[in-house]
Amino acid sequence: METKIKEKKEKIWVPKRAMVQAHRRKKGFFRCYGVIYIDSIEPKINSREIIELRLYESPSRIYACAWIRMYEHKLKNPFGENELTSVAANGSGYAGGGGYDLSAAAIVEALHKCGIPYEVLRPIDSGINQVPSFLVELAGMFGFDRNKIIVYQNYE
Asked: For residues 156 and 127, which has the higher predicted lDDT (pLDDT)?
């Protein structure tokens, strides 16, 4: 999968656009994961969501949509040599059939369409329970302090 780097005043990591609108559903939402980075607490709490995953279900498939929004200075680029100033990516995927964890497979596809290589996504293959810890590690790969990360889950 190719990633494009646009250069204006700064380098921005923007992978190929995926079909998020096509896989996003009004009905069938059943789980959301979010990663919040807490930059500082004193004197005022400064936090923002840097990764969001949403899961939707239909009678035969599970759909996942992912958004990665990291607007930082001097982010690490775990997948290349260029230093990044911001990351804006989205992707979606789905899984159907049986015999494996459909939610985990849909999340892997969505994150892969955000530009993350399959080799990095292998921990999720062991199941949906690995997603929160993987999201902390993913934020850490981009240079965020793992001690300042909160992962939340929302169920419908």
From this structure: 127
